[in-house]
Amino acid sequence: ERAPEPVLLNIYNLGKRTRLLNQILRPLGSGVFHCGIQVFGMEWAFGGPSPCARQGGTGVFACHPMQCQNHVYSETVELGNTLVPFTDCGSLIAILKLEWRVDDYNAVRNNCIDFVEELCSRLGVVGVPDWVKQLPKTADALVRGGETVCCVNGDASQR
Predict the structure, then answer these.
(1) What number is the average pLDDT over the span 4-23?
(2) In the structure, what pLDDT confidence band is assigned to residue 127 with cuts at 50, 70 and 90?
(3) Phi, psi of 87 (to 5 degrees)
(4) In what order do the strands lie in the sheet with 5-13?
(5) Taking the CB of the first residue and of the last residue of the chain, which one, N or C, has fewer CB atoms within 10 A?
(6) Is 71:47 a contact under the CB 8 Å cutoff?
(7) Stretch 101-127: mean pLDDT, rounded?
(8) Sign of the dihedral defined by the CA atoms of residues 139, 35, 5, 99, in that order
């Protein structure tokens, strides 16, 4: 029988300058965050174009837990245990590296939080807490709000 492996969500203040903003937003159930999943002693995350990311390459990267460059570690949330074995986890990450391309990164609609949600789903653990997702979801709704043309019985039609 497989031993369960803990899955942790490491949450960072996005960039070096959002700590104060997050201290204000966090009690309101929101914030500006970067996050990664820690499993089997490594942390996995997704990011957009950077000096280290090759154009057309993967946006998936690994780092030592709670030490993601360019972000300031804030806290860790336990998401449960996975029964996915270490070797299968490596294969899963290899697949995700093919699916999550650096050029597809979008700060609102296809970001580190979306990647982490996908990884959590495939590992069979709970997803990202709402307070971490709140700001990108709100931004996405505002961006998409301009596309709404009509509401009938609470359903918004899109152009």
Answers:
(1) 93
(2) very high
(3) -65, -40
(4) 60-63, 42-46, 33-39, 5-13, 72-82
(5) N
(6) no
(7) 95
(8) positive
Q: What token pair was written down for 97?
A: 């590296």
Length of the chain: 159
Query: Tokens in use for 54?
Result: 């090759």
DSSP label of 83: -
Q: Are 37 and 119 in contact (CB under 8 A)?
A: yes
Residue with tokens 């590296």: 97
Token pair 């490491």: residue: 10
State which H helix or E strand residue 148 sits in: strand 148-152
Mean pLDDT of the chain: 88
Do residues 20 and 80 touch, judged by C-beta distance below 8 A? Answer: no
Q: What is the mean pLDDT of residues 4-9?
A: 97
